[in-house]
Specification:
- By secondary structure, the chain is of the alpha/beta class.
- It folds into two domains: 134 residues, Aspartate Aminotransferase, domain 1 (Alpha-Beta Complex); 268 residues, Aspartate Aminotransferase, domain 2, CATH 3.40.640.10.
- Helix content is 36%, strand content 16%.
- It is built from 14 helices and 15 strands.
- The protein has a seven-stranded mixed sheet with strand order 4-10-9-8-7-5-6, with helices on both faces.
- α2 runs parallel beside α10 and α12 packs antiparallel against α14.
- The longest helix is centred in the last third of the chain and has 22 residues.
- The chain starts with 17 loop residues before the first strand and ends with a helix.
- The structure holds pyridoxal-5'-phosphate.
- Pyridoxal-5'-phosphate binds next to α3.
Length: 441
């Protein structure tokens, strides 16, 4: 046993040993270069020269805690509004920086509790919002519980801190191919019929735009937001994955007409080189904070190095036209993935937006799994095969979900290679699926 505590994430395969990276490739200890195909924290791939230069320069900056002023922090805030929130100035008020998406969601939820005086919080089925404090409570995928998963059962799950309401998933509004079950779903207003009661005692409802493979269009967001407004519940757009790049527009919430009370950002915001996240509050929320001190402090939040990374990332997004690039690649992924889904009987659904795509396989029900089995799930085995063939393809942690989230700088040719490795690797899942089907007859 080494000195670094390694706990394993779930019953997946052994993680590869990374020794370096460049562009869209990881360099592994066995000398191979593999395509980085699922890395929501690395929007620019590895070693982007402009990011590297900005951070080299920032290495000489002082250590300034959140309690002190730092001009680079004001600059990053201004740039976030100029680059990402352009056109949203009518409602967006101000930003506070923090360290991770989990922390951002926890802070946003506790602020909502303070503002409304309510304790309960709400999300939608199959959501993941982080594993810290209240963000863990609203992470309702059963296997992401923040506790200990033992391979032969005996899993220990910590009890939640807040009461959590779960709204139905936005299943009918997936971007590409919905399941048969989703196609038979009743209309949205019927599905959300019980939501008003749930949001009546909730401080906030938080919705994200990728987790569980749900890439809902604006209708779901607008319906939930409308109910939240009527019931005095705040709504938080969790754009930790989708914000400033991956969805092919600055924010996924721009697919709807409503605008959130709070937006959280993270993951790629530091260009994949530092840990940084942010909470953007609306003008109304900012007005409520005016004249009060928000008693929530973090020593390393808004660190000069992190602020330099945010500024550099936003500059690259703007100057390299990354959002247009993602939008242009979206069509390629949509087309190729529907072909792949049609070819493989093991695929139950593909869905996605921009450069985030989910491939869901037939198999065990994700609702019943606590990551406590000895055998690697089928999604992990497919990902293991893909790694052998030269590409990292992620699993969402569920047994049956694979996802692609390549660097936003990926080329068409590299995308084709990634997709063809996925295509080839799915034979494993087909074999298993066909055997199950035969066994059932
Ligand atoms: C939608 C969403 N929100 C929040 C988080 C938490 O972010 P982090 O892991 O950076 O704390 C994640 C992480 O996967 C996420 O997917």
């Amino acid at each position: 046993m080494g000195r670094l505590l390694r706990t394993g994430l779930n019953a997946g395969t052994e993680a590869p040993q990374v020794v370096g990276g460049e562009g869209v490739h990881f360099h592994l200890s066995d000398g191979r270069k593999v395509l980085d195909g699922s890395n929501t924290g690395g929007p620019l791939g590895h070693g982007h020269p402009r990011m590297a230069e900005a951070l080299r320069e920032a290495a000489g900056l002082p250590m300034v805690s959140e309690g002190w002023n730092w001009r680079g922090r004001d600059k990053a805030a201004e740039e976030l509004f100029e680059v990402a929130l352009k056109g949203e100035e009518h409602w967006a008020g101000a930003v506070r920086f923090c360290l991770s998406g989990s922390e951002g969601n926890d802070i946003a939820l506790s602020l909502s509790q303070a503002l409304t005086g309510r304790k309960a919080i709400a999300t939608r089925e199959r959501a993941y919002h982080g594993l810290v404090g209240l963000s863990r409570d609203v992470t309702v995928q059963p296997h992401w519980h923040g506790g200990l998963a033992a391979p032969n059962g005996g899993t220990k799950v910590p009890p939640p801190g807040a009461k959590v309401h779960v709204l139905p998933a936005p299943e009918g509004a997936t971007y590409l191919s919905a399941t048969e079950a989703a196609r038979r779903l009743p209309p949205l207003d019927e599905r959300l019929a019980g939501a008003a009661e749930k949001l009546r005692d909730s401080a906030a409802v938080i919705i994200d735009y990728t987790q569980g493979g749900y890439y809902h269009d604006g209708a779901y967001q607008d319906a939930v937001a409308g109910i939240a407004r009527r019931e005095g519940c705040l709504w938080i757009a969790d754009e930790v994955v989708t914000g400033v790049g991956r969805s092919g527009r600055p924010f996924a919430f721009q697919g709807g007409d409503t605008r959130p009370d709070i937006v959280t950002l993270g993951k790629g915001l530091g260009g994949g080189m530092v840990s940084v996240a942010a909470i953007v509050v609306s003008k109304d929320v900012a007005a409520e904070l005016d004249g009060k001190s928000w008693q929530n402090y973090g020593t390393l939040r808004g660190h000069p190095m992190a602020m330099a990374a945010v500024s550099a990332y936003l500059g690259i997004v703007r100057d390299e036209g990354l959002l247009d690039r993602v939008k242009a690649l979206e069509g390629l992924y949509a087309r190729r993935l529907s072909e792949i889904a049609a070819r493989h009987p093991s695929v139950s659904r593909v869905a996605g937006q921009g450069l985030h795509w989910t491939i869901e396989l037939h198999g065990p029900d994700w609702r019943n799994w606590l990551a406590d089995t000895t055998e690697a799930p089928i999604a992990s085995r497919v990902a293991g095969h893909a790694l052998g063939a030269g590409a990292v393809i992620g699993t969402s942690g569920e047994q049956v979900s694979l996802f692609l989230a390549p660097p936003l700088i990926i080329s068409e040719a590299e995308s084709e290679r990634l997709l063809s490795i996925l295509d080839d690797s799915l034979f494993l899942a087909d074999r298993e699926h066909n055997a199950t089907m035969e066994g059932a007859h």
